[in-house]
Amino acid sequence: MPGNVLVTNLNNFATEYMNSSGCNILMYSAEELAQLGPEYFQRFFIKEEMKEFTGRYIDMHQKQDSTAIYNFAHRVKSLNAPFYKWYFASAKLLYEPGQEVSNKMIVIVNEVNTLGAVAKKNK
Length: 123
Prior knowledge:
alpha+beta, 5-stranded antiparallel sheet, single chain, 5 strands, Beta-Lactamase, 123 residues, 30% helix, 4 helices, 28% strand
């Protein structure tokens, strides 16, 4: 799957999974990211943006609408990077087979600069 894929546990806001692409950008292993728990959000994101999207995660978790998708743009700063980069993300509750309630969010993330023609705007 292209891009960065992660799974967040909404009960404790810990990253349960991140693919190698995302780990390479952040310069952390999946295990290290899981150990960060909720500090993951504090470490890599701008506080105001982080509050917005984590608040939306909580709302989706409470509503349990299996069809809801949340698309958003946010900035990420990897370890030792001098500046933030813009990313576009799509988030959806992740249900296991037969499960009616999910406590996990799957998020697919791509750097905005890699979107190609989609990112071009008319002036």
